[in-house]
Structures are given as structure tokens and as C-alpha cells.
């Protein structure tokens, strides 16, 4: 079987299995296994495929047709120009989070030596990306999951980002920071309602519940972070969250009651308010 035939067969198998974008996933599988880009596949399509690589491809296709995300299969994903290693037990980086990170980059454009804490850091995409943009900033990432924490530290090394990482529950490490010391508190917390977790698409079911479950109403972590961590911000310091669809108004009210002003929402490409920022003025 040549490369082009293997590519087309893979795409057909994924399509038959109900994968939403079979061509997209096939390209990444071929890049991972054969080290061939889409253009390379066209150029070298008549070349006979290595048998051992075809066997590896077959196993990967089996995993994908059973619903496992392609990101876990290839062991990495991409976010704002950087590569992050991921595996089961680690939330997969998503383009939605770029809305939050871009908001933070704008907030901190005049505070390039800022002190930043990223809560529920996961694979570290927010903390690491901010550190890459603001080399003089102090950036600390807090993550509870042992698996995610191991990938957080690994990704910091992979991307040459010198951040501080804390393996702890965000409710337990708040006193490690002085009141009034932070320029930015940022988080992409779990925000899905508990009873909605079983209804999510099958690929998401492979991701860690710990990183998805925001409690009965989806707001547990917003409430906890605002009540416990707000006092760690400087006056005129910033807080920023990623949001689930329809959550802006509720979180805005939580922030207003906690002494925040200038509360702003940021839209994703679909027109949903995907992130929020506010200024601490107690």
C-alpha cells in the first residue's frame, strides 16, 4: 500500500466511525507517524508505506474510532505558536483559551514585570504563554492533579519558560501569597455543570472530570477563587477568567459584590463571551 492509499483509507475509516473532521485528524496522524505534512503526502503519495508504520497507524486509527481524541494519540497539541505535551488526565488545549490569554496580554502591556498567578493551570498553556510574552514577569502556576502537574512542569521545560509551579489545591495554597501582591489572577477553571458531564461528546468524555466539573451550577470555582483570592491582588490589579457559554452575567455579579470594577467580556469567533476581566478596587 502506498502513502496516498493509506491516507485515503484512514480518512474513510474515521469518517465511517463518525469522526467530525476525518481529514483534519488523518493529517495529524500522518504527521505523527510518517513525519509527512499534507503537502508531503501529495508529493510522496506513490511511495510504498513502511509496514511497521502502517501497523502503528492501524492502532492509532482504532483508538480514534473508539473516540479517543487525536491530541492524546499523538501526545501533543499546539497553542498560540507553542507545542504542549498532553495525555489522558490532562485537559487538551483549546483555541477558546486564546481569547483569555489575549485579554491578559492586553491588560499587562504596561506591567511587563508583573506578578501573575494562574489557577487550575492544567498543562500550563496560560502561564507558559504569558511568561513567553513577558520574560521579566513572575509567573506561578497552581495545579491540583498529579498527572496534569507533571505535564505542566514538563511543558515549562519544553518551552523554556521559567515559571514557578505549585502542586496543590487552590483552596489550600492561598496563604503562600501575600495580600495585595499580585498584578494578575487568571484562571480557566472547571465550569461545566456536574449533571452535564455525561452528556458531553464522546471525545470530551476522555478528558479528566476534575478539569471539567464546576459543580452543580458550574460556578463553584468562580465563587471559590473570588472569595479566597481577591485580597491577594494589588489595588487596581486584574482578575481574568475563561467562561462557559451564558456565564458572563452571573460571574460579573460575583465580581461586583467583591469590589471589582471595569468588568469586561471578550467574544470568541462564534460570538460567545468566552472570557472576562475586571479591576480590583475594594
What topology emerges from the helices and strands here?
Elements lengths: L2 H14 L5 H13 L3 H6 L7 H15 L4 H5 L1 E4 L2 E4 L10 H12 L7 E5 L5 H9 L4 E6 L2 H13 L5 E4 L14 E6 L14 H4 L14 H10 L3 E10 L5 H10 L2 E8 L5 E8 L2
Parallel strand pairs: 3-4, 3-6, 4-5, 6-7
Antiparallel strand pairs: 1-2, 7-9, 8-9
Helix pairs in contact: 1-2, 1-4, 2-4, 6-7
Compact overview of the structure:
The protein has helices at about 5-15, 20-35, 40-45, 50-65, 70-75, 95-105, 125-135, 145-160, 200-205, 220-230, 250-255, and strands spanning about 75-80, 80-85, 115-120, 140-145, 165, 180-185, 235-240, 260-265, 275-280. With about 280 residues, it is α/β, with parallel strands linked by helices.
Describe this structure in words.
The chain is α/β, with parallel strands linked by helices and 282 residues long. The protein folds into two domains: 3-66; 90-280, Rossmann fold. 39% of the residues lie in helices and 20% in strands. It is built from eleven helices and nine strands. The chain has helices at 3-16, 22-34, 38-43, 51-65, 70-74, 96-107, 125-133, 146-158, 202-205, 220-229, 248-257; strands at residues 76-79, 82-85, 115-119, 138-143, 164-167, 182-187, 233-242, 260-267, 273-280. The strands form two sheets. Strands 5-4-3-6-7-9-8 form a seven-stranded mixed β-sheet, with helices on both faces. It has a two-stranded antiparallel ribbon with strand order 1-2. α6 (96-107) runs parallel beside α7 (125-133). The longest helix has 15 residues, at 51-65. The chain is elongated, with a radius of gyration of 21 Å. The protein starts with a helix and ends with a strand. The mean pLDDT is 96.
Amino acid at each position: 500500500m502506498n502513502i496516498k492509499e493509506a491516507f485515503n483509507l484512514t480518512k474513510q475509516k474515521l469518517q465511517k466511525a463518525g469522526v467530525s473532521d476525518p481529514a483534519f485528524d488523518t493529517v495529524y496522524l500522518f504527521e505523527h507517524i510518517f513525519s509527512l505534512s499534507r503537502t508531503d503526502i501529495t508529493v510522496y503519495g506513490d511511495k510504498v508505506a513502511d509496514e511497521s508504520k502502517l501497523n502503528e497507524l492501524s492502532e492509532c486509527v482504532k483508538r480514534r474510532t473508539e473516540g479517543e481524541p487525536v491530541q492524546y494519540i499523538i501526545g501533543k497539541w499546539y497553542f498560540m505558536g507553542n507545542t504542549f505535551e498532553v495525555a489522558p488526565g490532562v485537559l487538551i488545549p483549546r483555541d477558546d483559551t486564546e481569547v483569555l490569554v489575549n485579554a491578559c496580554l492586553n491588560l499587562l502591556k504596561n506591567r511587563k514585570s508583573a506578578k501573575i498567578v494562574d489557577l487550575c493551570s492544567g498543562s500550563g498553556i496560560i502561564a507558559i504563554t504569558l511568561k513567553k510574552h513577558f520574560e521579566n514577569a513572575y509567573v506561578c502556576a497552581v495545579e491540583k492533579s498529579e498527572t496534569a502537574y507533571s505535564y505542566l512542569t514538563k511543558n515549562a521545560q519544553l518551552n523554556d519558560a521559567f515559571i514557578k509551579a505549585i502542586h496543590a489545591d487552590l483552596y489550600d495554597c492561598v496563604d503562600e501569597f501575600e495580600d495585595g501582591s499580585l498584578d494578575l489572577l487568571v484562571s480557566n477553571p472547571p465550569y461545566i455543570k456536574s449533571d452535564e458531564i455525561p452528556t458531553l461528546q464522546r471525545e470530551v468524555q476522555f478528558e479528566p472530570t476534575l478539569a471539567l466539573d464546576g459543580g452543580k451550577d458550574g460556578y463553584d470555582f468562580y465563587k471559590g477563587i473570588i472569595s479566597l483570592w481577591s485580597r491577594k491582588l494589588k489595588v487596581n490589579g486584574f482578575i481574568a477568567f475563561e467562561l462557559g457559554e451564558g456565564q458572563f452575567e452571573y460571574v460579573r455579579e460575583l465580581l461586583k459584590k467583591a469590589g471589582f470594577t471595569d468588568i469586561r467580556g471578550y467574544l470568541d469567533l462564534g460570538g460567545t463571551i468566552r472570557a472576562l476581566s475586571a479591576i480590583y478596587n475594594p
